[in-house]
Amino acid sequence: MGTPRSTYAPTDPHALKFRRALRHFPSGVSVVTVVDGDGGVHGMTASSFASVSLDPPLCAVSVNKPGRMHQLLHGTDGHFGLSILGQDQGAIADFYARQPWSVAVDVEMDLHHGCPTVGGALAWFVCRKWAAYDGGDHTIFVGESLDYGSTPREDLQPLVWHKSAYHDLGDQLERPRVTKQG
């Protein structure tokens, strides 16, 4: 798999130092999908996906402000999809990391209530925009999950992003016990 290049490239030395430090935090890889006003499906790779709340069920994703996906999320009817990618979906992550404004003709999309999600993803969420918060050079979009699902296959593993490259989970580690002193 290739290494995707973000459409956001900081030049400030402090931003670069901060980004280098963040490389040490592994994260799952997701794709945000939205339908534009002409019915075109667009996607953006995001490693900034997070669960926010169980009641109501909320998810969040951070999106670069000058980017096309930012414009699309603000301009839609408020619905967007989130797909958690599996370890065999690196090519999809690469495509949407480089081409967030493009429609990939060879990426299978599933429709749930008219909202696209990546076919074969480990999990998917159909969200209604619940809130948008300023996050510096990004906007944090919080979505209420109206519908969601996951693969029944236990053998599939997530795609993991760490130190600017894709990884799999590897072996499960034993959890050593920490004992209280005294």
From TrEMBL:
UniProt key word Oxidoreductase: yes
EC class name: oxidoreductase
EC identifiers of the protein: 1.-.-.-
Protein's name in the database: Flavin reductase family protein
Keyword set, alphabetical order: Oxidoreductase
PANTHER family (alphabetical): FLAVIN REDUCTASE, FMN REDUCTASE (NADH) RUTF
Coiled coil region boundaries: none
Chain ranges of the Flavin reductase like domain: 22-168
InterPro entries to which the protein is assigned, alphabetical: Flavin_Rdtase-like_dom (IPR002563), NADH-dep_flavin_reductase (IPR050268), Split_barrel_FMN-bd (IPR012349)
Provenance organism: Amycolatopsis carbonis
Keyword Oxidoreductase listed: yes
One Gene Ontology MF term: riboflavin reductase (NADPH) activity
